[in-house]
Amino acid sequence: MEEKEWIGRIERLEREIGRWKAKEEICNLMAHYEVLHNQKNMSLHPMDFAMDTPDVSVQVADSEIYYGPEGIKKLYCGNYHMEEYEGIMLVHYLTSPCIEVAADGKTARGVWWSPGIETVKRSPESEPEAVWCFGAYANDFILENGKWKIWHMRWISQVKCPYSEGWADQRTFYVRTAGRAKIPPATHNPYSKKYIQESIPMVPLPYETWNDEQWYLRKEMRER
Known about the structure:
Blueprint: H1 3-36, E1 57-60, E2 66-67, H2 68-79, E3 89-92, E4 95-101, E5 107-120, E6 129-144, E7 147-162
Parallel strand pairs: 1-7
Antiparallel strand pairs: 1-2, 3-5, 4-5, 5-6, 6-7
């Protein structure tokens, strides 16, 4: 094999190793996010986001979208500030990860299914209520200053209901500290007896470079 071919092969291997390393770092990043996702540490969340990237964003279920570094701070350091609420519990697990790193190594897409349990209060004086909270993440990630950060976070709701009632007869239960969007977005996909639930988010497909912010909403199934 000629020297040029060896160099090409080494370069391809380095890119592939970099992409595999990126997947591990992104998994660790999401785990760090979930560890912080409790009432005491909610204000620390911005450290996991691409705060030097102007279009960083978060959308939770049927909430409005929080854009930009100031929007991230407003959500996690303001709207989600709950330290005065005694008896709150937020436990969200990460399962079934599917991560695709762009061929150029600059961005990535990831989906996680996330079953969870919560104890919520409607006000500091109200009694705590036990709640099921199941959903999924469909996130974009970006390599910022040499570190992987959350670029666009989307929480797609599937079930949120009182533990005592169960989801088959649920009344969708949200303490709406994030604010409700005027038109329910695609990220609001709760179970209902009245319709067939959408199969979203779809898993990300391999891609060359950043090109599509709606990848998680596509309708076709991946051919295997």
